[in-house]
């Protein structure tokens, strides 16, 4: 299981895939699986990774890591679309080369960010 998840590029490393299996973030046909579990075509794999649920149906089993084009052919992605990113202006960023912020600048940045300042 962990090698297939890594081979089709659902996770960045095989150790991340193995850790996800051990933590119970991977389910095959509704059942929690171990990293050594075999995967067959037609299995539905649910993976919780990076704060997102991925739901894929296995169409082809591969043993070694393959290119992105080949990996896309190895499963059918039934995942819900990712939530839209909000386009917000970063608050409290300073221009490069303006030097170290003064105490007044720091307090203003903390006020904009909504973080508490020093107590005392």
UniProtKB/TrEMBL annotation:
A Pfam family it matches: S4
RNA-binding keyword on record: yes
One BP term from GO: cellular response to heat
A GO MF label: ribosomal large subunit binding
Domain RNA-binding S4: 1-66
Record's compositionally biased regions (Basic and acidic residues): 84-98
InterPro entries listed in its UniProt record: HSP15 (IPR025708), S4_RNA-bd (IPR002942), S4_RNA-bd_sf (IPR036986)
Chain ranges passing through the membrane: none
Keyword list, A-Z: DNA-binding, RNA-binding
UniProt-annotated stretches for the region Disordered: 77-120
Family indicated by similarity: Belongs to the HSP15 family.
Name of the protein described by the UniProt record: RNA-binding S4 domain-containing protein
Species whose genome carries this gene: Streptomyces malaysiensis
Phylogenetic classification of the source organism: Bacteria, Bacillati, Actinomycetota, Actinomycetes, Kitasatosporales
């Amino acid at each position: 299981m962990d090698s297939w998840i890594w081979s089709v590029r659902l996770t960045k490393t095989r150790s991340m895939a193995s850790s996800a299996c051990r933590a119970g973030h991977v389910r095959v046909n509704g059942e929690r699986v171990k990293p050594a579990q075999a995967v067959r075509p037609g299995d539905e794999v649910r993976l919780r990774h990076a704060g997102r649920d991925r739901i894929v149906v296995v169409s082809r089993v591969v043993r070694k890591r393959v290119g992105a084009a080949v990996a896309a052919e190895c499963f059918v992605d039934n995942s819900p679309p990712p939530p839209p990113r909000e386009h917000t202006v970063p608050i409290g960023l300073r221009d490069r080369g303006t030097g170290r912020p003064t105490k007044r600048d720091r307090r203003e940045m903390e006020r904009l960010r909504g973080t508490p300042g020093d107590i005392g």
